[in-house]
């Protein structure tokens, strides 16, 4: 049987209407879809009738399908002649271990292509009516992960603690106290705005506006159970905050 191919695609932050047309075509053409835990049901429902859905989800410090298993499954399916869609939440090139899966395909001689997606930071910024960059405030924005393979991730805390810095922390709920401690240790203002957006772009989206000083306590009190993006140095615009408050009252 002729070798198949693997398409790596980003499903975006969760709202099916934010899926790219190219990713939609890949969903409808795939024989097998290996999807991450954060891919929404609305998006999986767009798969073609012939597609077999396989959950390849991971959860930070929780249940795992090992990366080695995922790599092997991609190669196995492609060698069986299948059109495989590896569907990841957000953008596949941002904290999604894309390189490891690309290497597995390359070493096995499997053809692949990559379809980018809207990353959570973009959707979260839109949710609070903010721009990730602003003249006179920040000429750069950092995308950080809250944890690495061996535990909480370390970063350039001295740089992040400077006034006006903006950072988007992915997978940062469990590391909130660690991040707070490192930033304060390196001189960050305790009044630095911090915003956490849970389920950005989805109907059950929630926004928590707090400060670096209050971050762990307020996050614990909010009881967020879904995927969340944390902005350091960024607060919701007043109009966006009022809109989110209204949505909460109506829920």
UniProtKB/TrEMBL annotation:
The record's annotation in Gene3D superfamilies points to: Cobalt-precorrin-4 Transmethylase, Domain 1, Methyltransferase, Cobalt-precorrin-4 Transmethylase, Domain 2
Q: Which pathway is it part of?
A: Porphyrin-containing compound metabolism; siroheme biosynthesis; precorrin-2 from uroporphyrinogen III: step 1/1
Record key words, sorted? Methyltransferase, Porphyrin biosynthesis, S-adenosyl-L-methionine, Transferase
SUPFAM superfamilies hit by this protein: Tetrapyrrole methylase
Q: Per its UniProt entry, which superkingdom is the organism in?
A: Bacteria
List the CDD domains hit by this protein, alphabetically.
Answer: SUMT (cd11642)
Keyword Methyltransferase assigned: yes
Task: Give one GO biological process term.
Answer: methylation
| Keyword Transferase part of the UniProt annotation | yes
Identify the residues that the record assigns to the Tetrapyrrole methylase domain, covering every copy: 6-215
Alphabetized GO MF terms: uroporphyrin-III C-methyltransferase activity
Q: State its Enzyme Commission number(s).
A: 2.1.1.107
A Pfam family that this protein carries is TP_methylase
Q: Which PANTHER family match?
A: S-ADENOSYL-L-METHIONINE-DEPENDENT UROPORPHYRINOGEN III METHYLTRANSFERASE, CHLOROPLASTIC (PTHR45790:SF3), SIROHEME SYNTHASE-RELATED (PTHR45790)
Q: What is this protein called?
A: uroporphyrinogen-III C-methyltransferase
Q: Which gene encodes it?
A: cobA
């Amino acid at each position: 049987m002729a070798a198949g191919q693997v398409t790596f695609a980003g499903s975006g932050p969760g709202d099916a209407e934010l899926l790219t047309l190219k990713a939609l075509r890949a969903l409808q053409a795939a024989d097998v879809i290996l999807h991450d835990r954060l891919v929404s049901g609305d998006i999986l429902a767009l798969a073609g009738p012939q597609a077999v859905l396989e959950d390849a989800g991971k959860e930070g410090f929780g249940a795992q399908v090992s990366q080695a298993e995922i790599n092997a499954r991609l190669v196995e399916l492609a060698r069986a002649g299948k059109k495989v869609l590896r569907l990841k939440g957000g953008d596949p090139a941002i904290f999604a271990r894309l390189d490891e899966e690309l290497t597995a395909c390359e070493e096995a001689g499997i053809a692949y292509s990559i379809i980018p997606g809207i990353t959570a930071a973009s959707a979260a910024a839109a949710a609070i009516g903010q721009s990730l960059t602003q003249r006179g405030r920040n000429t750069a924005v950092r995308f950080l992960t809250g944890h690495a393979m061996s535990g909480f991730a370390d970063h350039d805390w001295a740089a992040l603690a400077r006034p006006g810095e903006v950072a988007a922390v992915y997978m940062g709920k469990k590391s909130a106290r660690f991040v707070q401690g490192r930033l304060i240790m390196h001189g960050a203002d305790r009044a630095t705005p911090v915003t956490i957006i849970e389920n950005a772009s989805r109907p059950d989206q929630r926004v928590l506006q707090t400060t670096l000083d209050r971050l762990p306590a307020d996050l614990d009190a909010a009881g967020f159970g879904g995927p969340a993006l944390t902005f350091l140095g960024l607060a919701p615009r007043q109009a966006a905050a009022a809109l989110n408050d209204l949505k909460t009252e109506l829920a």
